[in-house]
Structures are given as C-alpha cells and as structure tokens.
Specification:
- The protein has 2 domains: 21-50 and 299-406, Aspartate Aminotransferase, domain 1 (Alpha-Beta Complex), CATH 3.90.1150; 70-294, Type I PLP-dependent aspartate aminotransferase-like (Major domain) (Aspartate Aminotransferase, domain 2), CATH 3.40.640.
- It contains 15 helices and 12 strands.
- It has helices spanning 3-9, 15-18, 24-37, 56-68, 80-94, 109-120, 135-143, 163-169, 192-203, 229-232, 264-275, 283-294, 298-318, 356-367, 391-406; strands spanning 43-44, 103-106, 126-131, 147-152, 174-180, 209-213, 240-245, 258-261, 334-338, 369-370, 372-373, 382-386.
- The longest helix has 21 residues, at 298-318.
- The chain is globular, with a radius of gyration of 22 Å.
Length: 409
C-alpha cells in the first residue's frame, strides 16, 4: 500500500465540523487542571458551573424514582409530569401559559438550542448573535448549516444590543436572533424597558424568530426584575422559543435537563430531531428536575445572595488592578473585564502582551490563575472570570491578578 493510498484512506471529518473544535473554555480548563495534577497551585476560574451541591430534596427525589423503578424510557421530549412542572414554572415565574405540546425537554439547554436550529435552519440562513456570546452558539449555528452574524456590543452600552444595531444586522436571510439575559460571558441583563425597542424592530421583520436563552434567570442582582422577550411583547409569541433549565439555578449541571417552550410546529420539529439523537432525557434526571421546579425555592434566593457577595468582591478587586477595568454585571456568575490597559506592556521575562489571549496565558503561566480571553466569546480585549467558586479561592486569585498587573513593565 502506497503512502498516497494510506493518505486517501485516512479519516476526513465532515465539512460541517472541519472549522469547529472542542469548546475553547473546556480546553483552557483542561490545561489548567493538568497543571494542577502536576502539582502547581493553579486556581481555575474558567468553568460556568456552580460550586454548590444539588439541593438535598432534589437528590432525594432522584433516589425515590430509582426505588420506584422509574428507569425506563419516557415520552420522547419529556414525561407528562416533567412538562407539567415546566408549565408550572413558566406560569409562576414569568406569567406565561404554555400547553404541554408547546414544551420540549432535552438533555440540557444546549440540546434544546441544537434541536431548534437543526429543525429550522436551511443552508445560508443567518443567526444574529449579540457579541460577546456563549461560544457554543456560533458553533451550533455552523453545524446546522447556518451563518453566525456577530454584532459587537461593547461595555459602553452595557454589553447589550440596541435597536439600531439590530435593525442594521437584519437581512432577508436572517432567521433567528439570540437573546441571552443575564448573559454568559458578561453577566449583562436586559430590563423590560431595554427589550421593548428590540421587540419593536422584530415586529417589523416577521421572518426573524427569537431564541431567548434564560438559563441564568434566577441569578439576578440588586433587585432587578427579570424580563424575557415574549412576556415583554406577546405578539412575538408565535416566533419565540424560550429556553431554560435546571443546571445553573439548582446546581444540576451533570443531571443534563433543559427545556424550551414555543410554537407547536417548532416543538414538533424539534422532537423529530431529538428522536434521532438522544431520544428522551434521563428518567431519573427528569424526576429530580420536577422536584427542583416544583419544590421549595428558598435555596435559589439564598445562593443568589452568595453569588452577589462574590460578584461585589471580584469587581472591586479587578478595578484595583493596574490596567484593568470591570463593569458591574447585573446577573449570572461572571465578570467580563477589559484588559486593554495592560496590552503593550511586557512581562518581567520580556514577553510583549499584544492580545487578551496573551494576557490570559501570562496569568496562567506566571501567576497560576486560569481565566478565559474575551476573543473566545467574540469580543476583545476582555477576559472572563467565573466566580462560581469559594470566596477563599477568589481572594487568592484576585490577589495574584493584581500582582500580575503590577509586575508588568
């Protein structure tokens, strides 16, 4: 067999995934954890995962489900009991009424997004992504044959999309607009008053659907009232998919349960996609999620207060670091700080910091703190910190970041 023959027989990835890699956030986290295993005292502030345990009542509900033998397939896109719990949540928290066949339950909110885009995008359809955005958005759009259209939303505008930007980004090929509030990576949130002008633009463009990613709904600070597009403008209901899940508010990332509510035709098409991928979500995870959504909610507010205290500490610390600037995020558990003031400086080893990636690499290699560059999320020069970790870890990490900035020449 010749070398040319061997080369021709080598695996060739499909065109749809050639330009897409494993999540950069996961790669950075994996590299940092490898350094920790090698004995270095690295503090990892990369992962978007609460450090709390899943609430005890939720875990007990899963155990009871196992004891009852609820270990078989459920209805394809969520058991009737799970959908009823989602229905209750939307009515209680958002004053939105959805029928059970307007609800889809999947193995995480990410799968809900994937199902929706796979079910609706044709090749070349455009999806508007206010940047910075969660990295998976753009990759899922591309896998599903669409074209991501990032729109830069700077810190001067609170990292929020405004009506003029939205109007300018819409073309005849636009199929979806994504709204993530509170946001990953910035923690920025939209009030009802800030969503209203966007809704007015959308009413003039009936071909554009709205994907509202509300996964951080319950992690909102300073008394700000949560707002979601279809509640602000009910006339958008027939072209809005509202997505949420139990991962963030209830510290259930590993249980893999997300859900969405929207028009029946879209939900039915999403079920077709899910039928050929994962089938139903885990029956045990659904039992746990039912308890999370319908059981006592006190723990959600308690943990939100804890996150707010961490936010306040991290923002104040970053603003003490020479060359850094951090706005106060309204929600989620991230800060998105500008590092423009340190670019152009050199490390003591002589390395020139030219990009936010250079700065993040410097923090990890020289000061053993792992953070994620803003360029990964579509906007530079910034970096994201996840403060979903202990206050002791945050205190040490922020001290190292301040020292790292002070050490630059």
């Amino acid at each position: 067999m010749t070398a040319d023959t061997v080369a021709s027989l080598a695996f060739q990835p499909a065109q749809r995934v050639r330009a897409i890699g494993v999540s950069e956030i996961l790669r950075i986290t994996d590299n940092a954890n490898a350094l920790k295993r090698a004995g270095r005292p690295v503090i990892v502030l990369g992962a978007g995962e609460p450090d709390f345990d899943t609430p005890q009542n939720v875990r007990e509900a899963a155990v009871r489900a196992i004891g009852r033998g609820d270990t078989r397939y459920t209805v394809l896109d969520g058991s009737p009991a799970m959908k009823a719990a989602v229905q209750l949540k939307f009515k209680r928290d958002n004053a939105l009424d959805f029928a059970l066949d307007e609800i889809s339950v999947s193995a995480g909110a990410k799968q809900v997004i994937f199902n929706a885009l796979m079910a609706s995008l044709n090749p070349g359809d455009e999806v508007i992504l206010p940047a910075p955005y969660w990295t998976s958005y753009a990759d899922i759009v591309q896998i599903c044959g669409g074209v991501p259209v990032p729109v830069a939303c700077t810190g001067e505008n609170g990292f929020r999309l405004d009506a003029a930007q939205l109007e300018a980004a819409i073309t005849p090929r636009t199929r979806w607009l994504f709204i993530n509030s509170p946001s990953n990576p910035t923690g920025a949130a939209y009030s009802a008053a800030q969503l209203k002008p966007l809704c007015e633009v959308l009413l003039r463009h009936p071909q554009v659907w709205v994907l509202a990613d509300d996964i951080y709904e319950h992690i909102l600070y300073d008394g700000l009232a949560f707002a979601t597009p279809v509640a602000v403008e009910p006339r958008l209901r027939e072209r809005t998919l509202t997505i949420n899940g139990v991962s963030k508010a209830y510290a259930m990332t590993g249980w893999r349960v997300g859900y969405g509510a929207g028009p029946r035709a879209l939900i039915a098409a999403m079920a077709v996609v899910q039928s050929q991928t994962t089938s139903c979500p885990s029956s045990i995870s659904q039992a746990a999620a039912i308890e999370a959504l319908t059981g006592p909610q006190d723990v959600v507010a308690e943990r939100c207060a804890d996150f707010q205290a961490r936010r306040d500490f991290v923002v104040a610390a970053l603003n003490r670091a020479p060359g850094l600037h951090c706005r106060v995020p309204e929600g989620a558990f991230y800060t998105f700080a500008s590092c423009a003031g340190v670019l152009g400086k050199r490390t003591r080893g002589g390395a020139l910091l030219q990009t936010d990636s250079d700065f993040c690499r410097y923090l990890l290699q020289d000061f053993e703190v792992a953070v994620v560059p803003g360029s990964v999320f579509g906007l530079a020069p910034y970096f994201r910190i996840s403060y979903a970790t202990s206050m002791a870890q945050l205190e040490e990490a922020c001290a190292r970041i301040i020292a790292a900035c002070a050490a630059l020449e």
